[in-house]
Design a protein that fits this description.
By secondary structure, the chain is an alpha+beta fold. It is built from eight helices and four strands, in the order H-H-E-H-H-E-H-H-E-H-E-H. It has a four-stranded antiparallel β-sheet. It is globular. The protein starts with 6 loop residues before the first helix and ends with a helix. The mean pLDDT is 96.
Length: 196
């Protein structure tokens, strides 16, 4: 059975898409980011937790503060990217559950009363949402350069509070010259899928 998604869209979102390492200087607008979010917010999370929080780094001053917390190999490309997003997990996501999960409003105070349960769920579900966000960036005709080579504690102290745990920084923009490393291998279907 073939996929119903148009092959060109499959290529845009998956087969031809890779992590971008250089970008043009074409700006990424707030309207583009809004359109990306308005699409990817529909991606499923457990109990509709939606713990992802996005901090857009636009000003030169904020960019400079962020770059100092990145590994050396990530600094130059982040300094030059049109837009950078810090993705974090909101460990207090449960406060929104009466609105987001209205058929079980008591989940806020029963299932997620303990901080450790919230942190575990926030990390997992924010990571799911980060994947949706990357796909949304590609759907907007932009490239994403996600990075985890950074001082997370430093980024948290610089930009967030104790309730938000950063877990990835994404450079966003139109791909520049020599933006792509060669495609790395992928595992085959029969190496991943087991039927029992």
């Amino acid at each position: 059975m073939s996929l119903v998604l148009d092959p060109a869209a499959q290529d845009l979102l998956f087969r031809e898409a890779r992590t971008a390492n250089t970008f043009t200087d074409e700006p990424v607008t707030d309207e583009q980011v809004q359109a990306i979010y308005d699409l990817v917010k529909y991606g499923p999370t457990s109990m509709n937790q939606s713990p992802l929080r996005i901090t857009l780094v636009r000003s030169p001053e904020a960019r400079e503060r962020l770059v100092q917390h990145l590994s050396e190999g990530n600094q130059k490309k982040t300094a030059a990217a049109p837009l950078v997003a810090i993705l974090s997990a909101d460990n207090e996501f449960h406060e929104e559950l009466p609105t987001l999960f209205p058929h079980f409003p008591q989940a806020k105070d029963t299932v997620f009363a303990e901080r450790s349960a919230r942190e575990h769920n926030a990390a997992l579900n924010a990571a799911l949402q980060a994947a949706y966000f990357i796909i949304g960036i590609r759907a907007a005709g932009l490239a994403a350069g996600p990075m985890t080579g950074l001082d997370f504690a430093g980024v948290q102290k610089e930009f967030l509070d104790d309730d938000h745990t950063p877990f990835v920084v994404i450079n966003i923009g139109k791909p520049g010259e020599d933006a792509w490393f060669p495609r790395s291998p992928r595992l085959a279907y029969d190496e991943v899928v087991t039927t029992v």
